Structures are given as C-alpha cells and as structure tokens.
C-alpha cells in the first residue's frame, strides 16, 4: 500500500511542511499526514522513525529554504543594505511559511542534524551580514542573538495580529532595521 501511495521521506517531509503552513507545526501528526496520503499510520514507519523525525526534517527543509532566500538577498551587498535585505528576506519567508518558520524555532538534538550543514549555513549567513560591523567574539554572538530575537519577536507579534495601530507594521519594521544598523555600527566594545 505504501508503494501505491508513493510514500518517500521527501514526499512525507514536503507534505508535513505544507501541512505545517496550513495548521501549525504543533498540529502536524502522523495521523494527519497518513490521512492526506490515504494510508494507515503504520505505512509511515517504514520511511520515518517517528513524529520527532518528521518535524526535524521539516525544520531542516525550512532552514535550507530560508538560507537560500537569505543568501540570494544579501549577495553583493554589505552594511545597511545587506542587513535590510537579510531582514526583509527573513520576514518574508516567516510570513509566507508560518508553519515552516515555526519549525526552524524548534529545539533540535544535535545528533539529528550532524550530517547536514544547514544550521551552520544559517550562522554563516548571519555572520556574513555582520562582517561589515567588524565585531569580534563575544560581541558578534551577542549581536547575532539581538538580530534573531528582534526579528523573531516582531514577526511573531505581526503574525498573531498584535500590531493594532494605524501605522503600518512594514513602516515600523524598516525603522527598526535602520535602528539595528546604527546600533551595530556603534556596538560597545567589551
């Protein structure tokens, strides 16, 4: 029956990612996916170990997709332009793919992604944007955490409809990114 349904790890992962975007990563279950494929839950276990593996695969898929969008956005840019392009690509991806984006925020076991460079690539892209600011460690890590926290916080509030003010959220977003650029330009030394 599984062969008839065309089940593969890749198809299961893609279906789980699409489902996550529709209903949220926390509502992605083996049963929900099995119904989509018209098979019994047990059919999945010859392809994936468990739900944790499915969600991890969605997180890695989404991270890879996001990395591609970020890399394309920052190519040939530096400084404020690179930061703005990075921020916009980050926000655009998160808003277009809310379930996948939420999967990128899951706490993953390092053993689950030891054979992939996807998460290391995320760090490389963030540090590439910050190269202009010439931050040394630990300031670079602190600044990267500030960017991620700011982006994630804003996007989470925006996606939940939490900005009920006449000023467009996009206008605030652009001012915040400009403010982050100025902050990184004057980051305090250790």
Description:
By secondary structure, the chain is mainly α. 67% of the residues lie in helices and 0% in strands. It is built from nine helices and no strands.
With helices defined by DSSP (H or I, 4 residues minimum), what is the helix count? 9
What is the string of SSEs from the N terminus onward? HHHHHHHHH
- The helix content is 55-70%
Radius of gyration: 19 Å
Globally, the shape reads globular
Rounded average pLDDT: 93
**Largest sheet, if any?**
none
Distance between the termini: 62 Å
Structural class: mainly alpha
- Count of individual beta strands: 0
- Given as residue ranges, the uncertain stretches (5+ residues, pLDDT < 50) are none
- Beta fraction: under 5%
List keywords for this structure.
190 residues; mainly alpha; 9 helices; 0% strand
Give the helix/strand layout.
Elements (H helix, E strand, L loop, with lengths): L1 H4 L3 H15 L6 H8 L13 H24 L4 H18 L1 H7 L13 H13 L8 H21 L9 H17 L5
Helix pairs in contact: 2-4, 2-6, 4-5, 4-6, 4-7, 5-6, 5-8, 5-9, 8-9
Could you give a quick summary of the protein structure above?
The chain has about 190 residues and is mainly alpha-helical. About 65% of the residues lie in helices and about 0% in strands.
